[in-house]
Amino acid sequence: MEVINHLSTKVWASNGYSASTSSSSSLVQVDLKISWQVEYQHINIAPNGVAHIINKSVIENLDRKLQLFDYRFLMSIPTCHQILNWVLLVMGFDPNFHLSIIRKIVKHVQEKQNLLSQMAAADEIFPLHVGITLLKTHVLNEQVLIDLSTRESMVENDSGGNKWMIPATDVSIKVLRTKTLSKSSESESCMICLEEFSCGLKVIVMPCSHVFRGSCIIKWFEGKSCMPYMSF
């Protein structure tokens, strides 16, 4: 299973500027809030290359608000790093992501230079919000599992020299696709127990399109890694 990490950072000025409590009329202070969210999603890639999201969930949310500080610290990467590096570390960010986050913050503040100059004259506080999302994508490629199972099937048992007698891996068993037979299903039978399928029966559909009774094929794979028709 492959894991892909994608980090996205959004920076925006919150609504509603407020009057500063600073005694200096030429100083704009920043009211900075950092929001951190971690999301997980699982994607399955079928042998035909079609991908679909199995599930997606938010596993972590964290907000941190900093004390007011001079906006000029956010005008360059070195000074911004000086202010925010420890904050990002405390919040649990991977240090490899720090520079990309800081660059976006600095770019946003630099683009607001004219607004900040006007705010300095009005003695206002600049409310800044940074939203950071880390998306962890777990990619399951069915074709890789099929190839792995095939290789396992060709390995001979060291004790008896009998191939096929090596159990399939737990991962390959857990990802087997299940479905419930509908009324339109034609009369077929399980190749293992030889009993005919009935409407409403839960079966397992293999990537090769062969269909088996769920309990039969799982029990089969617990003892062998090959498909039933490959062992005859």
What does this structure look like?
- α1 crosses α2.
- The chain has 232 residues and is α+β, with helices and mostly antiparallel strands.
- 28% of the residues lie in helices and 33% in strands.
- The protein has 6 helices and 9 strands, in the order βββββαααβααβββα.
Write a concise keyword list for the protein shown above.
9 strands; 232 residues; 3-stranded antiparallel sheet; alpha+beta; single chain
What does the secondary structure layout of this molecule look like, with pairings?
Blueprint: E1 2-13, E2 18-19, E3 29-45, E4 51-65, E5 69-70, H1 77-90, H2 95-111, H3 113-122, E6 124-141, H4 142-153, H5 170-174, E7 177-180, E8 202-205, E9 211-213, H6 214-221
Parallel strand pairs: 3-6
Antiparallel strand pairs: 1-6, 2-6, 3-4, 3-5, 7-8, 8-9
Helix pairs in contact: 1-2
Low-confidence stretches: 155-161
Percentage of residues in DSSP E strands: 25-35%
Helix content: 25-40%
Q: What would you call the structural class? A: alpha+beta
Shape: rod-shaped
Q: Alpha-carbon distance between the termini?
A: 31 Å
| Rg for CA atoms | 29 Å
What's the total count of β strands? 9
Order of helices and strands: EEEEEHHHEHHEEEH
User: What summary fits the major beta sheet?
Assistant: 6 strands, mixed
Number of alpha- plus pi-helical segments:
6
Average pLDDT rating: 78
Briefly characterize the structure.
This protein has 232 residues and is α+β, with helices and mostly antiparallel strands.
